Amino acid sequence: MLLDYESSKFEGIIPLSGGIDSTALLYRILKENPQHNYLVYRVNMVHGTSGHRTTQ
Q: How far apart are CA 50 and CA 16, in angstroms?
Protein backbone atom coordinates (compact mmCIF):
# COMPACT_ATOMS: atom_id res chain seq x y z
CA MET A 1 0.00 0.00 0.00
CA LEU A 2 1.39 3.36 -1.03
CA LEU A 3 0.79 6.44 1.08
CA ASP A 4 -0.85 9.37 -0.67
CA TYR A 5 1.45 12.21 0.43
CA GLU A 6 -0.62 14.83 -1.38
CA SER A 7 -3.78 14.34 0.70
CA SER A 8 -2.26 13.15 3.99
CA LYS A 9 -1.74 15.63 6.82
CA PHE A 10 1.39 15.20 8.95
CA GLU A 11 2.15 16.85 12.28
CA GLY A 12 5.87 16.72 11.57
CA ILE A 13 8.74 15.15 9.69
CA ILE A 14 11.12 12.97 11.68
CA PRO A 15 14.53 11.92 10.32
CA LEU A 16 15.60 8.49 11.60
CA SER A 17 19.25 7.45 11.52
CA GLY A 18 18.63 4.16 13.32
CA GLY A 19 20.86 5.11 16.25
CA ILE A 20 19.80 4.95 19.87
CA ASP A 21 18.97 8.67 20.13
CA SER A 22 16.75 8.95 17.06
CA THR A 23 15.06 5.62 17.80
CA ALA A 24 14.30 6.67 21.40
CA LEU A 25 12.96 10.03 20.22
CA LEU A 26 10.73 8.39 17.60
CA TYR A 27 9.40 5.92 20.18
CA ARG A 28 8.64 8.71 22.64
CA ILE A 29 6.88 10.90 20.06
CA LEU A 30 4.75 8.05 18.73
CA LYS A 31 3.92 6.76 22.22
CA GLU A 32 2.89 10.21 23.53
CA ASN A 33 0.93 11.18 20.39
CA PRO A 34 -0.80 8.08 18.99
CA GLN A 35 -3.55 10.15 17.34
CA HIS A 36 -1.14 12.18 15.15
CA ASN A 37 0.51 11.23 11.85
CA TYR A 38 4.23 11.74 11.36
CA LEU A 39 6.32 11.28 8.25
CA VAL A 40 9.43 9.29 9.18
CA TYR A 41 12.31 8.92 6.74
CA ARG A 42 15.51 6.96 7.06
CA VAL A 43 18.80 8.89 6.92
CA ASN A 44 21.95 6.96 6.08
CA MET A 45 24.88 8.42 8.03
CA VAL A 46 28.22 8.03 6.29
CA HIS A 47 31.26 8.38 8.54
CA GLY A 48 34.28 9.87 6.84
CA THR A 49 37.90 9.09 7.55
CA SER A 50 38.43 12.48 9.25
CA GLY A 51 35.55 12.06 11.65
CA HIS A 52 33.18 14.12 9.52
CA ARG A 53 29.62 12.95 9.04
CA THR A 54 27.60 13.34 5.90
CA THR A 55 24.14 12.12 4.98
CA GLN A 56 22.96 10.24 1.93
A: 23
Residue 5 maps to a domain: no
Per-residue pLDDT in tens (0 to 9) along the chain, 56 residues:
577 777 788 898 888 888 898 899 999 999 999 999 898 988 887 765 555 565 55
Does 34 reside within a domain? yes
Give the count of domains, the chain. 1
- The runs of H, that is alpha helices, within the chain are 20-32
- Provide, for the chain, the percentages of residues in helix, strand and coil under a 3-state DSSP scheme, each rounded to the nearest 5: 25, 30, 50
